[in-house]
Amino acid sequence: MIVDLHSHFVPGVDDGAASVAEALEALQALRAEDVVTAVTTPHLLLPWLETGPAVDHELDRHRRAFETLTEAAAGRNDLPALGLGQEILAPDAATLRRALGRPGLGLGGTSYLLVEFGFDLEGDHLDVVRAVADAGRRIVVSHAERYRYPPGFDPVETVRVWREEGGLIQVNAGSLTGAYERSNPGARALAWRFIEEDLADLIATDHHARNRPVSPRDAWDALVAAGRQPQAERLMFETPGRIVRDEAVAWGRAT
Question: Which parts of the chain are beta strand (E)?
Answer without folding.
Answer: 2-4, 7-8, 35-40, 43-45, 81-84, 87-89, 112-116, 138-141, 168-172, 202-204, 207-208, 249-250, 253-254
